[in-house]
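So, can you check this one?
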Amino acid sequence: MKKSNAKKKRILVAPLNWGLGHATRCIPIINALISNGFEPLIASDGVSLKLLQKEFPKLSSFKLPSYNITYPKQSKSIKLKLIKDAPYLLKTIKQERKAIDHLVNSEDIAGIISDNRFGIRHKNVPSVFITHQLQVLSGNTTWLSSKLHQNIIKKFDECWVPDYKEQPNLSGCLGHLKNQPSHVKHIGPLSRFKKLRLPIKHDLLIILSGLEPQRTYLEEKLLLELQCYNGKACLIKGLIETEQRITKNENVLIYNFMTSAALENALNESRMVLSRSGYTSIMDYAKLEKKVFFIPTPGQNEQEYLADKFKKEVIAPTCRQNEFKIAMLNTIEPYTGFKDLHNNDVNYKELFSLF
């Protein structure tokens, strides 16, 4: 029997560089593309690109124009800063369009999967937009920010929402509309992790993430609070650097970063987790059925909404960053923790039929 010389279709996967969540939730998609006979290519910038290059060193990767998203020091100024940055963001989206035109031609790309990168689409190539925010919460301008985002989504061939369509679900009002467009598909949560039966090594696992300067503010606060913690703690700073560094401070083991395999073990080996309430993290905790304490990024409406949602549902406690005290971890006991709600795997074969 002759071996098939059929060329694999090349699919570009391009996550937004906003924290690490967009990149990490693309990991299972990239693995699924490989398993289904496609050749993924990676495109992003900053730490998101570095993370995926570490996870997939054999895949081709490309640097995209940077949105240069940062938080102001005062969380109340976020909306004003985004308005001020709008002209630069529009310029970056135009640069993305030029970059994707070049890549489609030079790399023979047969499909595009953009995780929240607005300009990464092409009229001659099936293009997918991944988002859990069909509605974008922005206070009294939610109607406007949601409308603008929905207009962007319309320009893609399909929109994949990583959540369940039915109740109960993880994203609440963020990922669900009363009148859902036909090209929007709820594909189920995305997680790079599996639940493993491992002995408990850490009473508390702290996972830091997100944009500066708030990531550093929380790190400094927690290191002070941990001086009064009696259990065994492990803190992961979420800094993607060339080499892994491990230090020990009293009863706290500190990592600058972990690869997916190491983080999967650490999560499974921990009794409880303290982290931001970013949506990708929430999908991971649901998959691993973890007990969690949330500290949302100050001023980020989406994270504050999700943290409040799970507190009301008696799943996970939360507090504001400036209010946190280590003793608050004792309030976690009455909360149920996360569950793998519907235990359904993503149907990648059906999703990838678009390509």
